[in-house]
Amino acid sequence: MWRLIKAVLFLIIIAGLGLVAYAYIGPLFFPTDFAAPSEEVSYPVTLETN
After folding, report:
1. b/e map of 2-22 (b: 16 or more CB within 10 Å)?
2. The organism sits in which domain of life (predicted)?
3. Which of 11, 13, 20, 43 is the most exposed place for a label (fewest CB within 10 A)?
4. Rounded distance between C-alpha atoms, residue 17 and residue 19, angstroms
5. Distance (Å, rounded) from C-alpha 24 to C-alpha 28?
6. Per-residue pLDDT tens digits of the chain, which is 50 residues long
7. Domain ranges across the chain
8. For residue 11, what pLDDT is reported?
9. Cα dihedral angle (24, 25, 27, 29), rounded to 10 degrees?
10. Alpha carbons within 13 A on the beta-carbon side of 20
């Protein structure tokens, strides 16, 4: 049972490190995934008054 817990903790740590690496290195390899939207979006809003 202890081996299973250690394996799961190891996989969680590896997944966390992979996520951090993707956040820092990802924009270099996938710039379109990290780009901000290129068009402005505006919606009319109706506010109710008392």
Report:
1. eeeeeeeeeeeeeeeeeeeee
2. Bacteria
3. 43
4. 5
5. 8
6. 999 999 999 999 999 999 999 889 888 887 877 777 788 889 999 988 86
7. 1-35
8. 98
9. -170
10. 6
Provide CB contacts within 8 A for 26, sequence distance 6+: 33, 34
What's residue 49's pLDDT? 81
Place of tokens 């997944």: 15
8 with 16: CB under 8 angstroms? no
Residue 2, token pair as written in the block: 């202890």
Say how far apart CA 33 and CA 39 lie, in whole Å.
15
